[in-house]
Amino acid sequence: MKQPLEESLYHRLGGEKTLQQLVEVFYDKVARHPDLAPIFPDDFTLTKEKQFKFLSQFFGGPDLYNQAYGHPMLRARHLRFPITPTRARAWLACMQETLDELGLEDHIKQEMMMRLTYTAQHMINTPEQEN
Fold it and tell me: Which first-to-last residue range defines the signal peptide (predicted)?
């Protein structure tokens, strides 16, 4: 007898509805964060749309990002923004707070953060400023 395929992280975390909530709560935090706000636009509408589409795909749901924008090419698309280790940590802290607020199961939060941490570290493109 065949073993059933494991459901994607996208489905296990709650699918579209949960991801929409996550994006809304997360970007409210980003907009208020002193390390992150300077590298984001004042209007988060397009940013939220892209993030929702990317995360849907990233966590095993529909490939919405590819359909709308082509391959994510994350590092290349982020090179114009100075992403320092401090900003990567701040981004991850906002995401962790968001996941905690959404009340997701611990094993799902851990799996999400593991994947996001790897990606955030890969996005770093600027060293910290020396004082």
Answer: none
Give the Cα separation of 40 and 30 in Å (integer): 8
Per DSSP, the residues of 54-107 read HHHHHTTS--HHHHHHSS--HHHHHTTS---HHHHHHHHHHHHHHHHHHT--HH
| CA 122/CA 112 separation, integer angstroms | 16
The fraction of the chain above a pLDDT of 90, given in percent, is 93
Question: pLDDT of 45-82, one tens digit each?
Answer: 999 999 999 999 999 999 999 999 999 999 999 999 99
pTM (predicted TM-score) = 0.91
Radius of gyration of the chain (CA): 15
Q: Specify the amino acid at residue 104.
A: L
* d(C-alpha 40, C-alpha 48), whole Å: 11
